Amino acid sequence: MSARHFALAITGASGAIYGLRLGEELLRSGARVSMLITAAGFAVLKEERGLDWAGAASVLDELRGYYRCDCAGLDYYAEDDFFSPIASGSSAPDAMIVAPCSMGTLSRISSGNSGNLLERSADVMLKEGRPLVLVPRETPLNAIHLEHMLALARLGVRIVPAMPAFYQHPESLDDLVNFVVGKVLDNIGVEHSLFRRWGNQC
Fold first, then answer.
1. Among residues of the chain, what percentage have pLDDT more than 90?
2. Is the residue at 12 inside a domain?
3. What is the DSSP string of 52-91?
4. CATH of the domain at 79
5. 104 to each of 12, 100, 107, how far by Cα in Å?
6. pLDDT, tens digit, for every residue of 68-99?
7. 3-class DSSP state for residue 141?
8. In the chain, where does DSSP find H-type helix?
9. Per-residue CA distances from 148 to 13, 86, 137 (Å)
10. CB distance 89 to 124 below 8 Å
C-alpha cells in the first residue's frame, strides 16, 4: 500500500509556524508531502521564522535542511509550476491543506480563480471531491470573509480557524500551535498525540 499523499501550502497570512509544523507531522506519519509557498508566504517565513528561502537556489534543499531529512517523500513546487502533478485531477493528492490561509487566497479559491498552482490545486480538490482544509488566520472577520468561508463549507471544505483551546492548560507557544495542527490532522485522518483530548486526564 502506497503512502498517503498530501499537498501543503503556506500563504502570506500570519502564522507560518502552523504550516511548518504540519509538514513535520505529516512527514513523521510517513506521508508524501508536496509543499507550495506563495511569494507572500516566503515573506512571512522570513519575518516570523527568520527563514530566508525566497531567493534560495533550491527551496527543496532548504526544506529538507529544515526538516533534517533527505525526505524522498518531500517535494516542492513553485507557485507558477502548472506542469506539476498536483495541477491535474489525474494525480490529485489524498488531501490538501492551506495553513495559514490568507483571506485573499480563500476568496480566490471560493471564486474558482486558478491564478497560481495553489489555487489550481485547490480547484482540483474541489472538482475531484477530495478533502480540502483551510486554516484561515485573520481577525476581525468581515462579511466578505465569512461569505467566502460559508460558500466553501457548503462545498465540503473544512474550515479550521487558527483558534487554540485552553482546556488543556497550554504552557508554551508550542502547545497552542500543536492544538491547531492536531485539529487539522484530525480532519485528514492522521493519528497524533499533539494535545490532550477533552475528558482524557492522561
1. 88
2. yes
3. --TT-S-HHHHHHHHHTS--TTEEE--TT-TTSGGGSGGG
4. 3.40.50.1950
5. 9, 12, 5
6. 987 789 999 999 999 999 999 999 999 999 99
7. coil
8. 16-28, 39-49, 59-67, 103-111, 117-128, 143-154, 173-187
9. 16, 24, 14
10. yes
How far, CA to CA in Å, does 14 sit from each of 28, 29, 107, 117, 177? 24, 26, 17, 20, 13
Whether 202 is in a domain gets the answer no
**109-145 per-position pLDDT tens digit:** 999 999 999 999 999 999 999 999 999 999 999 999 9
> Which cell goes with 160?
479550521
- Tell me, yes or no, whether 200 lies in a domain: no
Query: What is the spatial distance between Cα 140 and Cα 198, in angstroms, rounded to a whole number?
Result: 27
Q: Which domain holds residue 125?
A: 5-187
Over 60: is that where the pLDDT of 202 sits? no
Answer whether residue 194 is part of any domain.
no
The three cell numbers of residue 20 are 511548518
Give the torsion sign (CA, 177, 178, 181, 183): negative
Q: Please tell me the total count of domains within the chain.
A: 1
